[in-house]
From TrEMBL, chains A, B:
One Pfam family it belongs to: HTH_5
PANTHER family the UniProt entry points to: ARSENICAL RESISTANCE OPERON REPRESSOR (PTHR33154:SF18), TRANSCRIPTIONAL REGULATOR, ARSR FAMILY (PTHR33154)
Organism of derivation: Microbacterium terricola
UniProt-listed InterPro entries: ArsR-like_HTH, ArsR_HTH, HTH_ArsR_DNA-bd_dom, HTH_MetalResp_TranReg, WH-like_DNA-bd_sf, WH_DNA-bd_sf
SUPFAM superfamilies, sorted: Winged helix' DNA-binding domain
Gene that encodes it: arsR
Keyword list, A-Z: DNA-binding, Transcription, Transcription regulation
Name under which the protein is recorded: Transcriptional regulator
Length: 97, 97
C-alpha cells in the first residue's frame, strides 16, 4: 500500500477481508482450495471442520457471496469450487504500489 | 492455500485479517505506509480520515496490537511507523502453497 486508499476502495477491501476473517471460513476455503479440481462437496466439509451442517453452509454462503467460491447443486449435495485468482487479487491489493 | 489450514493457524490469521477488515484502518495503514519513511504523526492522520481523534487513536491501537504499526511518543504527539514485511506476510499466507 504505497498510495493512500480511497474511501470506496477501502470499503470494498474491508468487506472482502471480513468474509475471510473467520477461522472456520479460512479452513473451509483452504480445504476446498486443496481438493482435487479445487472443488469439494459440502458433505465432505462437515467432518473436518467439526461444526454443524447449517453452520458450515452459512460460512460457505458468506465465502460464495464474497466471490471466493461458486456453488453448484448435483443431486442431494451442493459442491463448492474455488474461483481462481480471487485470493491472489486480495493478496495483491495488500501489497500494491 | 494449497494445504488445509490447521485450526491454530486459521485462528491466528483470522485475528490479523479482522484487524485489517475495517475501511478506516485500511485507509490509516495506507496513509502511514505511503508517508515519508513510512511514518506519520497522529496529528496528520485525523483530517484525511475525517474521524475524531479518539476514534483514530483506537484504530491505530488495533493496528499496533496486530503488529502492523509501531508507536513512539515525541513531545505532545504519537508517531506511527509501518512494520516492514507484515502486510507481505499476510499476503503470502493467503496464496501460500
Amino acid at each position: 500500500m504505497k498510495q493512500p486508499l480511497a474511501q470506496a476502495d477501502a470499503e470494498q477491501l474491508a468487506v472482502t477481508l471480513k468474509a475471510l476473517a473467520d477461522p472456520a471460513r479460512l479452513r473451509l476455503l483452504s480445504i476446498v482450495a486443496s481438493s482435487e479440481n479445487s472443488e469439494a462437496c459440502v458433505c465432505d466439509l462437515i467432518d473436518p471442520i467439526g461444526l454443524s451442517q447449517p453452520t458450515v453452509s452459512h460460512h460457505l454462503k458468506v465465502l460464495t457471496e464474497a466471490g471466493f467460491l461458486t456453488r453448484s447443486k448435483r443431486g442431494t449435495w451442493a459442491y463448492y469450487r474455488l474461483v481462481p485468482g480471487t485470493l491472489q487479487q486480495v493478496s495483491a491489493l495488500l501489497i500494491s504500489e
